[in-house]
Design brief:
Oligomer: single chain
Radius of gyration: 12 Å
Helix content: 25-40%
Largest sheet: 5 strands, antiparallel
Strand order of the largest sheet: 1-2-3-4-5
Order of helices and strands: EEEEEHH
Strand content: 25-35%
């Protein structure tokens, strides 16, 4: 599963040909959550409160890039890196 972004110790990963709804995996230490690309909300799993807030903020700022990576992942095309919060 490619890591497409990394910021503040949070790895953002996306599986090729993953199931709907459009989402990515956010991993922070031993915590992992599936996060909706459309809303930035955790749809499965758990992240600590601060990590969840950062991921949601990042998702809303990078939604177009995430949608494009989701499209690419569905047809097994290489995914693009996306800038993290620290890179802005």
């Amino acid at each position: 599963m490619p890591t497409i972004a990394f910021f503040y110790g949070i790895a953002i990963r996306m599986y090729f040909r993953d199931h709907a709804p459009a989402h990515f995996h956010a991993v922070y230490g031993e915590h992992e959550a599936f996060v909706s690309i459309e809303t930035g909300e955790v749809i499965f799993g758990h992240l600590p409160k601060t990590a969840a807030r950062l991921v949601s903020e990042w998702t809303l700022a990078r939604r177009a890039e995430l949608r494009e990576n989701w499209r690419r992942a569905q047809v097994s095309q290489p995914l693009e890196r996306i800038a993290g919060l620290q890179d802005e």
